[in-house]
Amino acid sequence: MTATTATTATDTAPGGASLGTDPVALHAPVIEWFHHNARDLPWRRPEAGAWGVMVSEFMLQQTPVSRVLPVYEEWMRRWPRPADLAAEPAGEAVRAWGRLGYPRRALRLHGAAAAIAERHGGEVPTDHHQLLALPGVGEYTAAAVASFAYGQRHAVLDTNVRRVFARAVTGTEYPPNATTAAERKLARLLLPEEPATAARWAAATMELGALLCTARTPDCGRCPILEQCAWRRAGAPAHQGPPRRGQTYVGTDRQVRGKLLAVLREMPGPVPRAALDRVWHDPEQRSRALGGLLSDGLVERLPDGRYRLPGSD
């Protein structure tokens, strides 16, 4: 596949420095590598459609593919169209979300499905601005759906892509903790002009970051752009920014919230407070976690003092 030039070597990266490499020198080998090495994932198959892409993008945020796959497949069997999900109570989405973590994503996906059914005749919109207007859909998800489902030209910046660009172009081991305007500018500079090629580039750079240009042990020897990589040319300097701290889970409110939700997911109906009190020893932390679930709309308290998932019987 021939990539289309997005810019020239005289264009500048964020901060005013020359890109140093003609983007075409990156496009062709990365896309060719992807052609031969892309994983066969269900949301990449034509039958997944735009709804399958959207579901996968919600699920894959901060969650590895191996955990997402079984939940995604069951979700799509149960709710193959947005209208199917919208017809169910939001609590069923939370229940089906299982242990993927960050369950507010389930509520947001249910809200997006309801909006698609109501505003767009049950079809995921093709227009980027209409995607952005859906509940729970932010800049990244709108760009990903427009690109992967509809072959449009958008900069798709997830953690993997940001890490690839940081190393290959800016010569740093890791990107900033949060996406910056400079990174968005760089992504636009690197984007091929032809929409289908740009969509392929987005998927290819994401896969490169997931499989080879990983955070802890990058497999540089197999990288298709090893010779062009600014970080490797600089001697692979160690990270100089703020310390990178892994997310803790054990003993946190997140863990307690997960335990409380597990009780509600496993029971067919509302549960008494006593059933929730048994899952965690610290009453103050338990109450705080339950209060957060109530505030987030993930749990409802009935007049008789029992608790249930939202909208469940």
From TrEMBL:
Q: Does the keyword Hydrolase apply?
A: yes
A GO BP entry is: mismatch repair
HhH-GPD domain location is 59-211
> Which InterPro entries does the record match to this protein?
DNA_glycosylase, Endonuclease-III-like_CS2, Endonuclease3_FeS-loop_motif, HhH-GPD_domain, HhH_base_excis_C, HhH_motif, MIG/MutY
Would you say which domain of life the source belongs to? Answer: Bacteria
Kindly indicate where the leader peptide sits in this chain: none
Provide the reaction this enzyme catalyses: Hydrolyzes free adenine bases from 7,8-dihydro-8-oxoguanine:adenine mismatched double-stranded DNA, leaving an apurinic site
**Which family does the entry's similarity section mention?**
Belongs to the Nth/MutY family.
Name the UniProt record assigns to this protein:
Adenine DNA glycosylase
Give one GO molecular function term: 4 iron, 4 sulfur cluster binding
Keywords of this entry: 4Fe-4S, DNA damage, DNA repair, Glycosidase, Hydrolase, Iron, Iron-sulfur, Metal-binding
